[in-house]
Design goal:
It is a single chain. With 500 residues, the protein is of the alpha/beta class. It folds into 2 domains: 8-228 and 364-498, Alpha/Beta hydrolase fold, catalytic domain (Rossmann fold); 232-360, no CATH class. It contains 15 helices and 16 strands. It has helices at 99-106, 163-180, 195-209, 234-250, 260-281, 287-301, 305-310, 317-323, 351-356, 359-362, 365-380, 420-429, 448-456, 462-465, 483-498; strands at residues 31-39, 42-56, 62-73, 86-90, 109-111, 125-127, 137-141, 150-151, 188-194, 216-222, 330-332, 340-342, 404-405, 413-414, 434-440, 468-473. Strands 1, 2, 3, 4, 7, 8, 9, 10, 15 and 16 form a 10-stranded mixed β-sheet that branches. A two-stranded antiparallel ribbon has the order 5-6. The chain has a two-stranded antiparallel sheet with strand order 11-12. Helix 2 (163-180) crosses helix 3 (195-209) and helix 4 (234-250) runs antiparallel to helix 5 (260-281). The longest helix has 22 residues, at 260-281. It is globular, with a radius of gyration of 22 Å. 48% of the residues are buried.
């Protein structure tokens, strides 16, 4: 689940390679089986179905086959409740399949995690005590070019691998699933993680424009304004500041004796009250003031004052990851900064290499994929291709088209999208739609401060903001890796789905 956030201004869409093992329209036959979920004294009978959904354009031409794994609660006769909520869930990347959010997160089965330790490939799988299936049926979707989802032969991937085209493909797949399964009476929800939240933002608007009313949207580890990914952009450093502070406290380098949430709140306030004005002044900041800010940052981050001054208060993620545990010859993670690995050898000192390596991803992704493959093959009898593209950044994300139609703006299109505008449009058009924002203190891939900032700049009405629920946990990007967070998130999602 190595979900990548790259500089969209530097990604070329001029030439697309074929997607390995995924340019085909031949798909296995659907497979279904009945199961029973058990959580304490409660049980849920459900049917799991692995199948593909045709994605066709307005002329009926096949663009791709989107793989889905649906979990639907059924009664004793095997009939679904067609008025029960239905949630469409996916990961992001772009280029990531939905395995992580399924077998790691909100599906009825999960791989049992072990704190910050790397999992064995045969880690035990158990009924997920906090599965979203308790509140909603769930359909997990793999984006085209990922997992077992395929691009139709003869279709130019450049027409599909882009921000607006991806949202269009998902809108078509979702409406097809609703029609084929007779679920138009169900309250409809979206649940996206990482780039899946960018997809969510556009889908909220797009589905509404196509007559599909949403009851709620869940944004897990969100990124909306992609300007924060651009090199040298102050919004990047501002977003990292509280996350670095939380990580330093976790490793005992700062914040001794302070409650974790209070420490994060202090860092959030410092970011806006002190750090942001200092960065905005650039070299107009006096040396004396720059040192004062560096000393405060050192207290938050546990890094030497002189090191911070050498970088003019701007420490990037790779630098922090390499230096916070340098005395232990360790490098901390990116998706979840609490995970660690041995530092690479001096021969592998490339910052690009270090930046791409991530202990948080290595610790869990392989076990999730193995559990998913075992479930599909052994229990569903679904025999997919030998290669499942859990992550296909090289052929999908690396060639992503970032230009986005930003409605209502003078220029119309932007190569560096800000989909917070789409969220605002969708909520103003459908003020009854609920929105949940979930973030973690140790997530350096999609930092929490930026999400708060981006939505606050939409100036939504108090009535709309009352429909928004914010959840900040002591976790990283994949909130569900952390068992206490998984339990808390399960309870919070129950309350969110119950909210009228």
């Amino acid at each position: 689940m190595a979900e990548e956030e790259k500089d969209p201004s530097k990604i070329s869409t001029s030439s697309f390679m074929s997607v390995p093992a995924n340019t085909t329209v031949e798909t296995p036959a659907p497979a279904s089986a009945r199961f029973t979920w058990t959580g304490g004294a409660e049980t849920i009978d459900y049917q799991a179905t692995a199948s593909h959904i045709e994605v066709r354009d307005d002329r009926g031409a096949l663009e791709g086959m989107m793989f889905s794994l649906a979990y639907v609660k059924v009664d004793a006769e095997g009939n679904p409740d067609r008025k029960r909520p239905i949630t469409f869930a996916y990961n992001g990347g772009p280029g990531s399949a939905s395995v992580a959010i399924n077998f790691g997160g909100i599906g009825p089965r999960r791989v049992r995690t072990d704190g910050m330790n790397h999992l064995r490939m045969d880690a035990p799988v158990e009924d997920n005590p906090s599965t979203l299936l308790q509140d909603s049926d769930i359909v997990f979707l793999d984006a085209l070019g990922t997992g077992w989802s395929s691009v139709a032969e003869g279709t130019d991937p450049s027409k599909l691998f882009g921000l607006d085209a991806d949202a269009d493909a998902f809108a078509r797949a979702i409406t097809s699933w609703l029609e084929q399964n007779g679920r138009w009476s169900s309250p409809i929800y979206l649940f996206g993680e990482s780039y899946g939240t960018t997809r969510n933002a556009v889908l909220m608007r797009l589905l509404g424009e196509r007559g599909v009313g949403l009851t709620g949207v869940v944004m897990l580890s969100a990124i909306f304004n992609w300007v924060q990914t651009l090199a040298g952009e102050d919004m990047y450093y501002l977003g990292m500041m509280p996350t670095f502070a939380a990580t330093a406290q976790f490793f005992g380098k700062a914040g001794a004796g302070v409650d974790e949430d209070e420490w994060f709140d202090r860092a959030m306030a410092f970011t806006e009250d002190v750090y942001a004005p200092a960065l905005l002044r650039g070299d107009r900041l006096s040396p004396e003031h720059e040192r004062e800010v560096a000393e405060r940052l050192s207290e938050f981050w546990g890094l030497p004052v002189e090191h911070i001054l050498e970088h003019h208060l701007r420490i990037d993620l790779t630098d922090f990851r390499q230096n916070i545990l340098k005395d232990e010859s360790r490098v901390c993670g990116r998706l979840d900064m609490r995970f660690c690995s041995d530092a690479p050898s001096p021969m592998q000192g490339s910052s690009a290499w270090v930046g791409e390596e991530d202990a948080a991803d290595d610790a869990v992704e392989g076990a999730w994929t193995n559990a998913f493959r075992s479930f599909c093959h052994d229990e569903l009898g679904y025999h997919g291709p030998s290669r499942y593209l859990t992550n296909n950044w090289e052929n999908v994300g690396h060639k992503w088209g970032w230009e986005h139609d930003e409605l209502g703006t003078e220029d119309g299109k932007s190569p560096v999208p800000n989909v917070a505008l789409d969220i605002a449009i969708a909520l103003r058009r459908n003020p009854r739609c609920k929105l949940a924002i979930i973030g973690g203190r140790y997530d350096a891939a999609t930092t929490f401060w930026n999400v708060v900032h981006d939505l606050s700049c939409q100036y939504l009405s108090p009535e709309i903001k009352e429909r928004m629920s914010w959840f900040r946990y002591g976790c990283g990007h994949m909130a569900y890796v952390d068992k206490p967070t998984l339990d808390a998130m399960g309870k919070d999602m129950h309350a969110f789905y119950e909210k009228k």
